[in-house]
Amino acid sequence: MNGWRECKLGDVCSDISYGYTESASLVPIGPKFLRITDIVPGRVNWETVPYCKISDADISRYKLLAGDIVIARTGATTGYTYTIKPSDLKNDAVFASYLIRYRPNKLHADPFFVGQILTSPIWKGFVEGILSGSAQPGANAKQFANFEFILPPLPEQRAIAGVLSSLDDKIDLLHRQNKTLEGMAEAVFREKFVVNSGKWPASLLSKHIEVYRGLSYKGSGLCSEGEGVPMHNLNSILEGGGYKYTGIKYYKGDFKDRHEIKPGTVIVANTEQGHKLLLIGYPAIIPKLIGNNGIFSQHLFKLEIKSGSPLSNVFLYYLLKSQKTWEQVIGATNGSTVNMLATVGLENVEFNMPPSKLIDSFTEFAKYTLDKQEQNISSTRILTRLRNALLPKLMSGELRVTL
Hints:
Layout: E1 5-8, E2 13-18, E3 32-34, H1 56-62, E4 69-72, E5 81-83, E6 93-95, E7 99-104, H2 111-117, H3 121-132, H4 141-145, E8 148-151, H5 154-194, E9 202-204, E10 209-213, E11 222-223, E12 229-232, E13 249-251, E14 260-261, E15 266-269, E16 283-285, E17 294-296, E18 300-305, H6 313-321, H7 323-331, H8 343-347, E19 350-352, H9 356-396
Helix pairs in contact: 2-5, 5-9
């Protein structure tokens, strides 16, 4: 291909630097402090990125600019990357010590083309090769700099990056819409059921729900998609509540009817996930996109509304997400090494029982927002598959962009 040449990542960068070492702070005492956990899984929610204390001299050294590429260098996320966009720079930001910054020379390489390369299967295979020869997951700047790829002429780099970035932007927009929709439902719940809840009679969840524990499964029963049934597990719940689509597992072993679960059912995490994520006590609703024939693992509770109760699954989900309820649940956990939640920890939750008409009106509204979120997730999956199919073909020159 005319003008295409082989190069290494280090060859096209004008600067390669390790990040700044400092403690993160939720108080705005300095610039935003981008960490490994903030770039997983490939997008950044700058609202949750903390701050750090840093001198003016060090800010100039570690400040992130549009087109900078940061790569995680340690742990299970080694090789994860993020390319800084102009829209990311509403506030000054620096990067933490477990990230390495690669700053492409814009005279020779389009940063967003290089950033796309670093999301490709070729890059992932390269990182796996580094990790396979290491006792502890991790890599250094020199190892990453040796990554080889084909570099088209600059105009074609920009054209390829533009095609892929337009898909990424649409995916990001759908994620932001879902965040807005969830925030709207939470705000309406607080307004209707938290602010003025003191005027309603107290009740216990035990009067309204049955709690079931999931399947205690063997690892040998785990399988690939299409070989077994979807199994919702601890990784299926987001910190703070909500369903995590990337956490689904598949199981081909034996299970009982009580382990089955349908879309729309509420699940709750009953144990911790190490020290990185606080999941215990948080709820999710099983989405329709997963299908009807699912089961759930022993690290989750399944909640079913008792006959005659005016509660709905949607109301229950937002009730369990509320700060007051979650604090009650956390207060009921125990364990010497791993925190655990017993069924009574949910059954003994006290709340103020609103009128059934108010529950019904909220349920109708919240179902609309949840359905819209699922539609957006479906669209995101289609766009992601299209992007992933185009990426290797564009990067190899098999598919060319007309300039």
